[in-house]
């Protein structure tokens, strides 16, 4: 427009009233490395925003080989953070890096032995740099298309890219043409689930069949024995608590996109999400926030203590009362709160670290949990990635002390956890960060759906109860399989 100033970057286009995050995800799902941060269970504080992004301009993927993959992410983030522009009064993720930190990334942070079997070999880290974001505010019922124009940094080239990317994503969101790779070019989509299944003989042994079509990497008796050995380590003074899990498997019967849409419908969660790594897809209905950073203020919300819900109102109320009054579950929660306080203290100012909430009952579709909140403020010299190094993986899914608990997990669990108990996260170019803990999560790929489930073991743990608890936690995922 001659004679008028160009609008500032990033380019921001409000979407029509009634714009749907789910529809945006479906429209963009065929693009490379689509990621959907989905507040499927709405809450004014925990489930306010959703984001859809795809076709990143850069991509980092690393196996679990011990390299410092977070350093590569930090280099990428710092390269573009000074050039990004962030608009106030909009949802917090307006461009940045996003993706998967698998549990197995722990081997790049600590000296942890390899698990006995790594049969499905998912990446330890898969992160993209995203310049176009579709952002939703579920409280204000508004949505925006945001285009940064990166990786171009020269002003004219950046504006031209921002305009082109905005127009292309608008066409994909509202036109009738199929999605194809635009100008990002950092990878390919693998969400058509075209890979032939790996045969069961190629996977770790000891399958059990507790329900039709679902197998486990250990029998019920083997899980109970694993719990007994965990309790022995606790009595020996090695740990106070250790989280132990079994991996359930089901042959894929639909696309991972359809699987995720069923999962979010049948088991809605405030930290739900989908991520297409290419060969693998993450479908998560996580209730647990690992880390949030806003204006350098840090929050973590560890979950410990679980009861299955009942369709009978009186029994459901009793389950909540029983959980709130359980000395075992409260002690388990407090142990993890202390661990997270210590982790945050490594990168936060000492006077800022405090417990905001302790052992509050929260109710979800299939379970009730005890949830605590710990907060702090990052020290001036520390970045959100320093916070990840200090805290990853979350203590609620390892145990305490964390390193020894991870050593015991590597010894007792037969197969690598992969994405399970890792994190789906975004880090905005302005330093805003959200990271979930990948529980209630299905990893799709190579013809299989993996859905591990576990729980925290303490000195009072009963092997039968712990085994039953894993199936309570699996209910919402199992309902999404068909």
Automatic annotation (TrEMBL):
SUPFAM superfamilies: ADC synthase. Transmembrane segments: none annotated. Residues 221-473 form the Chorismate-utilising enzyme C-terminal domain. The keyword Lipoprotein does not apply. Its EC number is 2.6.1.85. One of its GO terms (molecular function) is 4-amino-4-deoxychorismate synthase activity. Pfam families: Anth_synt_I_N, Chorismate_bind. Residues 22-144 form the Anthranilate synthase component I N-terminal domain. One of its GO terms (biological process) is L-tryptophan biosynthetic process. PANTHER family: AMINOBENZOATE/ANTHRANILATE SYNTHASE, AMINODEOXYCHORISMATE SYNTHASE COMPONENT 1. Keywords: Aminotransferase, Transferase. This is Para-aminobenzoate synthase. It comes from Lacipirellula parvula. It comes from the Bacteria. The lineage of its organism: Bacteria, Pseudomonadati, Planctomycetota, Planctomycetia, Pirellulales.
